[in-house]
Amino acid sequence: QKHIISIPELTRSELELIVETAGKLKAEPNPQLLKNKVVACCFFEPSTRTRLSFETAIQRLGGTVIGFDNGGNTSLANKGETLADSVQVISSYVDAFVIRHPQEGSARLASEFSHGVPVVNGGDGANQHPTQTLLDLFSIFETQGRLDNLNIAFVGDLKYGRTVHSLAQALSKFNNINFFFIAPEILAMPDYICEELNQAGINYSLHATMEEVIPKLDILYMTRVQKERLDESEYVHIKAAYVLTASMLADAPNNLKVLHPLPRIDEITVDVDKTKHAYYFQQAENGVYAREALLALVLNEQL
Ligand code: CP
C-alpha cells in the first residue's frame, strides 16, 4: 500500500486520478467507502483545517477516526516515547495513519515504522504538505477547467511555506505552467525548488509587486508570513510586505481566482472576500473532498 509523504513521489496520472475522484465524491457522496476502516489522525502540531477536514472526510465515508490534536498533551511527549515507537503502537490499531509533526522528515520516518499501514503526511515542518496540494489542485481544476497552461503567482512566505513548495512541485508535472514569485528577499523560494523547476524546464520569474502580474494571472496564491518560524524583529519588519486589497484586482482577468491555504492574518483584506475572485473558503471546503478521495484510493489500493 502507498504512503503519501511528498508530492514528487506522485505521478501526474495519480494526481489527476485524485482530482477526478474528489470531483466525483463532491457530486455524489459515498458513505460506504471506508466502512469498517479506522484511521488515526495524530497532530503533534496545531491544525484546524487539515485535522478537521480529514476527520470529516473519514466520517462522511463511513469510517472511524481516532487520534489527538496536541502531541504535547499525550503520553508520547510526557513520557519521552520516541516517534518511531508511537507509530508502531498506533499503526497496529488502524488501517491508515495521518500525521502532522513539526520535524521535517517525520512522516517518512513514520512510514518506516508503520508495518505497511499507509502513512499520510499532514505537514512536516517547513518541508511538505501534500494533501494541501491535492485540494489546491482540485480547486484550480474546478475553477479553471484544466491543470495545464496556467499562469500562477505565489506571494508571501515562499521560504517556509510548505504549501507553495508542494504545489510548485505538483504543477511542474503539467504542461506550460508559468510561475511568478513575489516575496521579501529573506523569504524567497528555496534554491532547491528553483533548481527543480530549472531542471524540469519550467518558467519562473521574480517580481517586486503583485500589480505588475495580476493582469496575466489565472491563480493568485497568497500565503501568510509564518510568525512561528521567524525572529520577532524579522516578523515585524516584513509582516505587511504584501497585502492584497479588492482595488488591486481591478485589472484582474475574469477567471482569476485568489487562493490561500489559510489561516490568513492580514495579507488579504476582507473586502477581497466579496469579489468574484475570492475562492479561499471554497478551497478550504474542498479539503474534505480531496482527502476523501485520497483515503478512498489508498485504502482501496488504487494508488
Ligand atoms: N492550511 C492548513 O494546513 O491549515 P491548518 O494548519 O489549520 O491545518
Automatic annotation (TrEMBL):
Pathway participation: Pyrimidine metabolism; UMP biosynthesis via de novo pathway; (S)-dihydroorotate from bicarbonate: step 2/3
Catalysis: reaction(s): carbamoyl phosphate + L-aspartate = N-carbamoyl-L-aspartate + phosphate + H(+)
Enzyme class: transferase
Stored SUPFAM superfamilies: Aspartate/ornithine carbamoyltransferase
Superkingdom of source: Bacteria
Annotated Aspartate/ornithine carbamoyltransferase Asp/Orn-binding domain residues: 149-297
EC number per UniProt: 2.1.3.2
Aspartate/ornithine carbamoyltransferase carbamoyl-P binding domain segment(s): 2-141
Gene3D superfamilies per the UniProt record, alphabetical: Aspartate/ornithine carbamoyltransferase (3.40.50.1370)
Binding site for L-aspartate: 79, 162, 224
Key words of the record: Pyrimidine biosynthesis, Transferase
Binding site for carbamoyl phosphate: 49-50, 100, 129, 132, 262-263
PANTHER family: ASPARTATE CARBAMOYLTRANSFERASE, ORNITHINE CARBAMOYLTRANSFERASE, MITOCHONDRIAL
Sequence similarity: Belongs to the aspartate/ornithine carbamoyltransferase superfamily. ATCase family.
Function as written in the Swiss-Prot or TrEMBL entry: Catalyzes the condensation of carbamoyl phosphate and aspartate to form carbamoyl aspartate and inorganic phosphate, the committed step in the de novo pyrimidine nucleotide biosynthesis pathway.
Assembly information from the UniProt record: Heterododecamer (2C3:3R2) of six catalytic PyrB chains organized as two trimers (C3), and six regulatory PyrI chains organized as three dimers (R2).
Name assigned to this protein: Aspartate carbamoyltransferase
Organism: Shewanella glacialipiscicola
